[in-house]
Amino acid sequence: MSISKTAMSGLALTIVGSLALTACGSGDDSGDDGGDVTLNFTWWGGDERAARYQEAIDLFEDENPGITVRTSFAEFQDYWTQRSTDATSGELPDVMQMDLSRLLEYANAGLLYDMNEFAGEQLDVSTFDEALLASGEVDEQLVAVPTGTNTLAGFYNPDLLAEIGVEIPDWDYTWEEYQEFMIEVAEAGASHEPRVYGAGDYTMTWWFFLQHLVQQGIEPFSENGEMNFTEDDMREWIDSAAPLREPEDVTFPPSRAEQLLPKNGFTSGEAAVEFHWDNFLHSYSHDLNSDNVQLMPMPSGPDGEKHMFFKPTMQLAMGSNSSHPEEAAQLIDFLVNSPEAGAIIGTDLGVPASQTRLDALEVEEGSLDQRIMDYEQRLRDEGHATAQVPAHPEGFGALETEYVEVLSQEFGYRQIDSDEFVERWFSEAANLLVTS
């Protein structure tokens, strides 16, 4: 088995137009690495995830000597650019990571294999919560299987905060208190070498905007794809962080962020906090070479509640062009259900969605896996995770890309203001959002 990291650039904005042309394709790949069948498997993620997948797939190949797995991986946005290219040429991988934000785009174009054919045989789906499994169903077809669950989290570096003499807020903190913390860190970190910031501009993250809407009592999208928020809602959200930008900008500079790639401000030790999905604890700890990265919840909304939600971390799907769907289903079953694979992967793909894997998962006290599981349990116990994951209409992924990869970059460099940001996003939404 070989693993290569794909170096790609660009944005996954062309996918919808090309998908419908490619529902049929050969995808034939047999035995060129010495086995009877060769499967192509690709995912997004970093080196830490690649190492875990590699070890698990080595074990799968040992148990299935007639199958060879050829793999590749990339960062999230680059990954979807490559999948768009694959879709155009009818060469989607046999097995690939899928995200809920892209599922309908691929499924509605007929690009994903209906795995109901293998349920109960090559693929055991009885181990999943029905509602969680249903997240991978489109028009009664099982086109994706969840790997795990996750939720949003704030990651912070206690060692760095101790160096500059700043304390992290309590769990019941608000967005306004988070802003005060950001300003305090920037002031205390100004004389640190290198300079330390609190974090980037949080309003430029799509999922934080959605979390904010949920806290306002707004479900961002209806199941039929209708948008339930207005231009004013988005503008008010962006402008709410104005105290971080004026009179002095205390958010992490985008120019410095570019210099640090492929790391970011947090994993380079130049930002104290980073918000992301909680399973990123593995990669952040790895990149910081630290076992002391800690987690905290999102800030509270106006009613004092957090209204957080759990979602499928990611899913595994099969390209409809696969020449080896039965073997592909075997690989997916191994990755999501096998206790042996679970021991290797841990919670890097989320807290296991399969009850079989979850029951068999042995975690060491104080380990990263244990801390993620404890974090999610505390959210449940203290009533912080009370909302449902926002609906993902077709076009959701492209809208997220426009928000995060295009407009937020221009806003970060102050090339556009909040008015232009909102105007352009809603203009794109009118073209990209598919309603039924």
TrEMBL record:
Signal peptide region: 1-23
Gene3D superfamilies: Periplasmic binding protein-like II
PANTHER family: ABC TRANSPORTER SUBSTRATE-BINDING PROTEIN YESO-RELATED, ARABINOSE-BINDING PROTEIN-RELATED
Protein name, per record: Carbohydrate ABC transporter substrate-binding protein
InterPro entries named among the record's database cross-references: Bact_solute-bd_prot1, SBP
Pfam families associated with the record: SBP_bac_1 (PF01547)
Keyword hit for Signal: yes
SUPFAM superfamilies membership: Periplasmic binding protein-like II (SSF53850)
Species in which this protein is naturally found: Streptomyces marincola
Keywords: Signal
